[in-house]
Design brief:
Helix content is about 40%, strand content about 15%. The chain has about 325 residues and is of the alpha/beta class. The chain folds into two domains: about 250 residues, Spore Coat Polysaccharide Biosynthesis Protein SpsA, Chain A, CATH 3.90.550.10; about 60 residues, no CATH class. The strands form three sheets. A five-stranded mixed sheet has the order 3-2-1-4-9, with helices on both faces. Strands 5-11-7-8 form a four-stranded mixed sheet. A four-stranded mixed sheet has the order 6-10-12-13. Helix 8 packs antiparallel against helix 9 and helix 9 packs antiparallel against helix 10. The longest helix is centred in the last third of the chain and has 23 residues. The protein starts with a strand and ends in a 5-residue tail after the last helix.
């Protein structure tokens, strides 16, 4: 069903503990989920052998020694045995709701993303306990914090979705935001699965990069360093920095629904210049349509929030979804 791939940091200290937790949780998803670990940093080969997952040490790197996203994604597509792929950060714990959510997506071209839950975890989880998932969920609800919509830690997509990917430096800013922008440009349905997927991010500092160098070094700063600035240039600038708010669909307990609330419509309207040529016919049709829809939303709720709004939303969704990224 699904190939999960990642490129862990060195397995040192606390980061080693939480990465082991994360990768072990992926293995617990069962044989339907294949796991690929990339890179030759300390401990990666050993953990792959211990857990019985595939290890691919060779990944192209830039002049700073940082792995490149285009190489990682291209190799994952070549080596994956499943049609669907999922890039997941190596500090993210996944549970059964993750593959279950993906199974509910009926389309062939899509991108699934979602907000993470941040929580402090200092020790190895006991995966031999039959109730480890229930206990973890309870702890997350008590102590965890839902991360803002700016951060994305997993991307689920079908093989061949992206086309050509720029040589972004992984672990630096902008490249993950560009993937959302790229999916929208390609007309793929971008789905926010936050409501039905609890992915757990184990809090850690940024003391070390994949090279073991201090991230406080300005050159290696993942937000403002040389590689981060280059990533932003490769992405096409700030206008191409998309996040979870730019998803066009939401996966809920009741199923998939288009994101057509007032806030969503305003967001779609603001993003139009980045997605469509402002002088093109499609832009000139969609922009006033979104403006009209935004102005009508309050009126619909005054008339009858359930009966009237539901019927009109159903009709409007078919029209609007054709323009805001399916």
């Amino acid at each position: 069903m699904l190939t999960i791939f990642s490129i862990p940091k060195p397995f040192l200290g606390h980061i080693g503990v939480i990465q082991r937790n994360a990768i072990r949780s992926w293995c617990e998803l069962g044989p339907a989920c294949e796991v690929l670990l990339f890179g030759d940093d300390q401990g990666v080969a050993e953990i792959a052998a211990e857990l019985g997952v595939k290890h691919i040490p060779e990944v192209a790197r830039n002049e700073f020694g940082t792995p490149l996203v285009n190489s990682l994604f291209a190799r994952a597509e070549r080596l994956a045995s499943k049609r669907l792929l999922a890039y997941v950060n190596a500090d993210i714990i996944l549970m059964d709701d993750f593959p279950q959510a993906i199974e509910r997506v009926p389309w062939r071209r899509f991108l699934v993303i979602g907000q993470r839950w941040d929580m402090d975890i200092a020790e190895m989880l006991d995966f031999t306990a039959s109730d480890w998932k229930c206990r973890l969920r309870a702890e997350v609800l008590m102590r965890g914090v839902l991360h803002p919509q700016l951060g994305v830690d997993y991307f689920v997509y079908p093989r061949g979705l992206w086309g050509e990917v720029p040589p972004f430096a992984i672990g630096r800013t902008a490249w993950d935001n560009w993937l959302i922008y790229r999916a929208r440009v390609l007309g793929a349905r971008v789905i926010d699965a936050t409501e039905v997927v609890m992915d757990v991010h184990q809090n850690h500092d940024h003391s070390y990069t994949s090279l073991g160098q201090k991230a406080l070094d300005p050159q290696n700063d993942f937000l403002k360093g040389v590689e981060a600035k280059r990533n932003l240039e490769l992405a096409g600038g700030p206008s191409h920095i998309f996040d979870i708010r730019d998803a066009t669909w939401a996966l809920t307990a009741r199923g998939l629904r288009p994101k057509l609330g007032v806030v969503d419509l305003r967001r779609h309207k603001d993003r139009l210049p980045a997605l469509l040529p402002p002088t093109g016919l499609r832009f000139r049709l969609v922009h006033p349509l979104l403006t009209l829809a935004i102005s009508l939303c309050p009126c619909l709720h005054r008339l009858h929030p359930r009966r009237v709004a539901r019927g009109l939303r159903r009709r409007a969704s078919r029209l609007l979804s054709a323009f805001i990224g399916n």
